[in-house]
TrEMBL record, chains A, B:
Name used for this protein in its record: Homoserine dehydrogenase
Binding-site positions, NADPH: K108
CDD domains reported for this sequence: ACT_HSDH-Hom (cd04881)
Record's keyword annotation contains Methyltransferase: no
Catalytic residues of the enzyme: K208
């Protein structure tokens, strides 16, 4: 296992589940190619698992149940972490980083909650911390954002970064089925976990939004800084209402650099949020269906870019992990290291209430004169300008459909509450933010 | 211009045309941000131009007409080349690399023809050679291919990498106009140059194909290794014929790793080619219209990825150049360097005649019994299997439309020649390769 005069780079893998087993398989199968690309032998030295008897496909000599020993082993140069979770994973990775080992992780939750602490440990020891697989599976995204666009000013990142919710929403759009039915279908087909909370309530997407905003805007955004609404409240009526205005419904992670009141970059703030939106079917993200992911980036000089591919799955995620592993190993062979955390901008977080948004609102109303005037007054009182209003149906089916101009989210939310209290409004049947340029 | 204890990274720019002027503008405007990202002052030290009097927007003290002095100046750490052309550009960059300066270039023709020589000079001196802007403008592509996917096996790269030809073909599809008319429109709007040869004859796309194939397959592919057909022969009849089978027409750069007869990776060959294709409108590349670029990548573990964005233009290309510049400057500050050329695979080039292709062929034929039999026999004699055949029209308008199964390109081409010689075939009106899975 020697590559001439260059010492082998020894790798310890933590976890051999869906992703880890693919990482191990590819490390073994492609050993010769990886060695040629690194410039030194990439040697798989240990695989830490909970139950070794379940991993007959992995050479027994590599298996261990002692993850703590793997991260502490001075002979291990790079630790690949694919077990997930916060504890004890965080302490395991800090142990590895503190002694100067490189770390490759796919753990978005850990990075979104404790990224700064991990980065600090990496910096202090001069170690690499790579995590391409943490966002959007196999899609190269972290590297393009933090390296390719390092000479540009990113203005906005909008992504479909959760395959489970995209599958559910796609199914609702295609079949007209309701949320519960689509969720059951996703569970049956293996696209949703038994407990789908992390996906459908937007926690997974929020962690990714925190990572994307941090990298894209050179600042620190944690999971708790991300405004979050899931898809459980999205109804078949919402989907139908979106279709009527040439839109589809997607759960987006949106990260924006918002100019301050005086327009100077020093006054900028950052908004990171996850919520369902109605978006025009002409938008490149609108056609991203099923379990695929895509991220749309707007930068000052580069213009509009999109990255598309499989957002999850063992082999695709393993591809991202191995790309990072080759980079970290190359850096060790060359005696250098990759880009560090870049958080110099230190931008404040814009509260959700201050974010400018457009709303689509459907109301069941009494079919009588004066209803439109009452509704319009409620908007005007809140300082919210109406873009379009459509009256539909008669009698018991009378409806008003309103799309607003941009206004602070807090003003829009309070308007919706006031509408619900109007005597002539029988029910607010659909409320959703609208994104993209409407035709 | 000092960044504390760290010495500034001094940059010399060669050329201040469409791209260069944007590079210079952004370097000056974003100096503080770039410095924060590099970890040292990024100092614009010189801009070499032919006619300084035309560049009133650039500080006069930076302008020089002596490019040779800039590349030889030991005080210049990184040379940014955006003048294009082969000579004297090659010698200028070799001078810079030989003395250990980093080089960032957008020069696809130079890289496709003399890449190995430049890489060798970079390696010998331990210098960085970056060229993200050479392919697909602002779209991060080189870095994802050579770094993010370094742990995967890329199987195929298919790209719309020339905005001029994509604009012309999009115009033909949308309006039904002919090639000459669409070319005139593109020229009028500034999407085609006065001499459009490099674009419409596929030279530009071929240079990019050579670069993509070299990086993607860890081998050396030069511009002359790329099979090349332009779009000048694409007719309104071809576009109409494509539409009839649910396709659109695109000029694609296609790079494939083709398994050898024994199936072992050691027997693989590489095919790089540029030619128009009929592709299903359901394919993600089919909807990439106008001057946009997109590249579709299939990798063994990652699956199908797509990268989309502006393929040309001053600011987008400058964004890619500056991303590279930040990377090279960071590497200098950290004392390391980026990935070198990786050409260990040394794959042979598969001749175009051996590439497996499907053809779409339209024939004007005599409206009499036996024509189909004669045509089918011509295919059978060449060992080419027919997928679908459609008879259309009567009398003088009688036509046969044939789509073949996969066969060696040489067999298909010779079949077309033999069809043209058949007594019952009055004219071969459309011949084009078909790509993607047909519905």
């Amino acid at each position: 296992m020697s590559a001439g005069s260059t010492r082998a780079v020894r790798v310890g893998v933590l976890g051999a589940g869906v992703v880890g087993s693919q990482v191990v398989r590819l490390l073994i199968e492609q050993a010769d190619e990886l060695t040629a690309r690194v410039g030194a032998t990439l040697e798989l030295a240990a695989v830490a698992v909970r139950r070794p008897e379940r991993h007959a496909d992995i050479p027994a000599a590599l298996l261990t149940t002692d993850a703590a020993a793997v991260v502490a082993d001075p002979e291990i140069d790079v630790v690949v972490e694919v077990i997930g979770g916060i504890e004890p994973t965080k302490d395991l990775l800090l142990t590895a980083l503190n002694r100067g080992a490189g770390v490759v992780t796919a753990n978005k939750a850990l990075l979104a909650e404790h990224g700064p602490q991990l980065y600090q440990a990496a910096d202090a020891a001069g170690a690499d911390l790579y995590y391409e697989a943490a966002v959007a599976g196999a899609i190269p995204l972290i590297r393009p954002l933090r390296e390719s666009l390092a000479g540009d000013r990113i203005q906005r990142i909008m992504g479909i970064v959760n395959g489970t919710t995209n599958f559910i929403l796609s199914a609702m759009v295609e079949s007209g089925m309701g949320y519960q039915e689509a969720l059951a279908e996703a569970t049956r087909l293996g696209y949703a976990e038994a407990d789908p909370t992390a996906d459908v309530d937007g926690f997974d997407a929020a962690a990714k939004a925190a990572i994307l905003a941090s990298i894209g805007f050179h600042t620190r955004v944690g999971a708790s800084d991300v405004y979050r609404e899931g898809i459980a409240a999205v109804s078949a009526a919402d989907i139908a209402a979106a279709r009527e205005i040439g839109c589809t419904v997607k759960l987006l992670a949106i990260c924006e650099r918002v100019p301050g009141p005086d327009g100077s970059p020093g006054g900028d703030a950052v908004s990171a949020r996850v919520h369902p939106v109605m978006m025009p079917t002409s938008h490149p993200l609108a056609t991203v269906d099923g379990a695929y992911n895509a991220v749309y980036v707007e930068a000052e000089a580069a213009g509009r870019l999109m990255f598309y591919g499989p957002g999850a799955g063992g082999a695709p995620t393993a591809s991202a992990v191995l790309g990072d592993l080759v980079a970290v190993a190359r850096n060790r062979v060359a005696g250098g290291r990759g880009p560090r955390e870049s958080s110099y901008a230190a931008l404040p977080i814009l509260p959700m209430g201050d974010v400018l948004a457009k709303y689509h609102i459907s109301l069941d109303v009494d079919d009588k004169a004066g209803v439109l005037a009452a509704v319009a007054t409620a908007f005007a009182d809140a300082g919210v300008s109406i873009s379009t209003v459509r009256q539909e149906g008669r009698g018991d089916d009378a409806r008003l459909v309103v799309v607003t101009h941009s206004a602070p989210d807090a003003a829009l939310a309070s308007t919706v509450r006031r509408l619900a209290d109007l005597d002539s409004v029988r029910a607010v049947t659909s409320v959703m933010r609208v994104t993209g340029d409407m035709r």
